[in-house]
Design a protein that fits this description.
The protein is of the alpha+beta class. It has a single domain, classed as Ubiquitin-like (UB roll), CATH 3.10.20. Helices cover 17% and strands 27% of the residues. The chain contains two helices and seven strands. It has a five-stranded mixed beta sheet with strand order 2-1-7-5-6, covered by helices on one side. Strands 3-4 form a two-stranded antiparallel ribbon. The radius of gyration is 14 Å and the shape is globular.
């Protein structure tokens, strides 16, 4: 059994249109490296030299990894990882 990584529509061009990919790794960081090996460019969209980009939220089993151990958050077979880009918008006037 592998770990399921749910891919947002904005990044599906990197996964050949797949909305989910299976991956392996002991931590979120290792998982991202594993997915990036099969789908180059994904890591660059998710991470910078400081860690997870500010406009990207990653959830491990519905828990925001920023409140866990960040990229060092442990994962196990059967876990579900969701990548959610932060969305801003709306009008400035009422």
């Amino acid at each position: 059994m592998a770990i399921t990584v749910r891919i947002p529509s904005a990044l599906r061009s990197l996964t050949g249109g797949a909305d989910e990919v299976a991956a392996e790794g002991a931590t979120i960081g290792a998982l991202i490296d594993h997915v990036d090996a099969s789908h180059p460019g994904l890591k660059d969209r998710l991470c910078d030299d400081k860690g997870v980009r500010r406009h990207v939220n990653i959830y491990a089993n519905e828990e925001d990894i920023r409140f866990l151990d960040g990229l060092e958050t442990s994962v196990a077979d059967g876990d579900v990882i969701e990548i959610v880009p932060a969305i801003a918008g709306g009008s400035g006037g009422a």
